[in-house]
Amino acid sequence: MDKQRKTPPSWSTKFLAWFLKEDYYEDVQGDLEEEFNQKAQGIGLLRAKRWYTLQILRLFKPDKVKKIEAQNSIEKETTMFKNYFKIGLRNLWKYKSSTVINVIGLSTGIAAFVLIALFVKDELSYDRHHEHAENIYRVTVKNYTTDGDISRQWAFASAGHAKLLKEDYAEITHSTRFYPWAFPDLEYQEQTFRGEPVIFCDPDAFEIFDFKFLAGSEESAFPDIYSLVLTRASAIKIFGNDWEEKNIIGETVSLSRDDNEAPFKVTAVIEDMPDQQHFHFDYLAPIRFVEMIMGEDAANNVGGNYNWMTFIRTNPEADIPKLTEAANDEFWDKYIGNFDSGSAARDFYDFEFQPLLDIHLKSNLEGEYETNGSIEQVYIFSVVGILLLLVACVNYMNIATSHYSRRMKEVGVRKVIGAFKSSLIKQFLSESLLVVIVSLPLAVLLILWALPYLNEFMEKQLSFNPLVQTDIFMGLILLMVLVGGLAGLYPAVFLSKINLVQALKGEQSMNSSKWNFRSFLVTFQYIVTIGLLFAIGVIESQMNFIQNSDPGFDRDYMVTLRLPRGDYSNETFRSELLKNPQIEKAAFSSRIPTGRLADNWGSRFYKGDSAIATSFRLPVVTVDKYFLDTYGIDILAGENFRDGMETDLVQDTMVTGYYIINLEACKALGFEDPAEIVGQKLGYGPSEGRIIGVMDDFHFESLHSPIVPTLFLTRDRYRRISLKIGAEDIRGTLDYIENIFAQFDPESDPNYRFVDDLFNDQYQKEERLGTMIKVFAVIAILIGCLGLIGMVGFIIETKLKEIGVRKVLGASTQNIWMIISNRFLILIAIAFIIGLPVAYWFMSDWLQGFVYRTNISFMLIAMPVVVATLLTLAAIAYQTLKATRVNPVECLKDE
Fold it and tell me: Which residues form the MacB-like periplasmic core domain (predicted)?
């Protein structure tokens, strides 16, 4: 003990050995240590150590420092790595079964991760191609109830908001409105194009968004109100593939919709809108044309008609929260003030300036121009992708450490001949990286094979070409290094720590640590598997719940199509269709169930002579007198729309129309008995009407939303017709519908859809999510089962003598199977206890997105653990049967 206390500092001695020339080292180190011992006895140990360190530092001089031969060091490292890879290749070839399992597991995990990464990258890239994307905001309007709760939030604003916001607030440098003009017809020479996606906008649109001009320029795009900017696709559509060789600037095309028709001149051509943009169009025209049609009052309106998609661009220094607060404090008082009822407009309306980059993934407001993505779905896929990659890495770790006994003597010999722990870690990390390098080409092939199916399923245009896309190439290299390091780190550290003497004797026992880190890794695999299986069960249960739920209307054998364009009476078209006996009923409407409800005007309910503004959302649908009967919806009180109502209106001078409301609207207006509200007066927008009936509730929108108060009225103009057809000769009936449609509109396609299909389309995101989770769960289970089979095989290999002894003593195959299974069953139980609550929390949160949802039953909870247990027992049984068929004599004979 006394000698140990007088030992000089070890780090100082190591430092001396590192830098001092070898010619000096032996003499200098010996002299210093001898003098150190003398001083330790004379001046004390602590002061002697300080003296010793100081002397070594004084020796650190250029003439005594070794020459560091970097090149030799690099050559040595290179030689060692060549040796590592050579040994690694030999081991891959020698242990083919484990190599196949590892390569399949890693390649599948990498392929799944990359495919998910491509999807996530695409979703996160929306609208980022615009130069000023971070300073662009969409103006949305919130509407509040009298209780201060949000009633609705429009994705659009009023016509006058853009101009006035820009004038009042210096932070706003540009503003524009986009107004879709209900898909007008376009005519050029002898060609007619029906229902073209034309959007009208302000000139500032070219300052806010980046449009690449292929012909014409930003300055010449809108010289007057009859200007028309085409996209490349629309230019090809109208003028042919050689449009660039033609001088199409100045060509005249005609746009018509309803009773409005006007000639427009082509002023520019821009590049097509990229897929990664939250709204698309084929034509741009000046919004002044729409203002001219609607009139000055509609163009300057600030308190209704929320149909104008409005964007602003701010200066980079703008404080958006302060700007929003200022606009909400000042704008509504300045331009609206108080309603007729005396209520202040600012108590019912607020602006929200929504960042452009948030719209695609974080917005699902009323009136969205296109269906947006879901940030929750991006999060789910991201987590699943990472988990699959981790499962593949864990699989490699388990197998690599399971057959450690094959490498013990090799590790022992390397340690005897001077291998450091760091050298052994480098060796095993190199082998891990080699497995990843072998797996990567297979992963690339899997990606190339699966990507077309993913694109078709997700309706994407994802691309994967590492040789051209440098970001993907660098990502794969980084991923290769990351996976190689992650998968190989634990096996490398584990194998490098094996005891030298036991390694040479081959005595390192797997059971020396029964619940080691490898048990944790196996448990992690079970947690992921159980979680994914539980998610599948919940999603499938919710989808079945939706399919079997009663929406409150008849959707079976119901066909809907848009109305033909042209000069004809709706009744004539309906009569022609009903001549076919297979078409039982027909009804016109502005919207159909499974669509989205919209309301752009406020409503008020009359109590005596007093008009009270309603505090709830009241969307409107226009229908004819056949609508309720066609869809099988009952009238609870009052009457349906009927012939002769125009005559009644002449006598009822206090109203301009008649309304039917649903039961939910009746309750919202304070009437429990539907019969009591019949005959009451209700105002909607600029119109006054009388309630003549109350219909039963039904799900007009999806089950994501509650049934809301809804107003139904009748008028001459409709957009769609719904047809109840018979179950026989469906193909013949559809052909008949097409023929009749062609008689009224020979240049258009009816684009009919079954309402049942439209109903299912409402849950397309959930269907896609469920299918993708199924695929990922299968991948996770495949990787886990392969690893389990390999790991159990190696465990049995180390227990062959024990199995042989047990067989000699009379143990059956079932006894041996249960002994091996016990440990894994405990791990499954632990995974169930940890993983199920986490999965339950996630899936319960997902179900909150549905107002009407399934219950999480005991079967859903039990199913994942039962499946995991059965798969595990089957994998163990397979390997156990192989082992028990071996003659015990072969197991017990000496090596």
Answer: 99-327
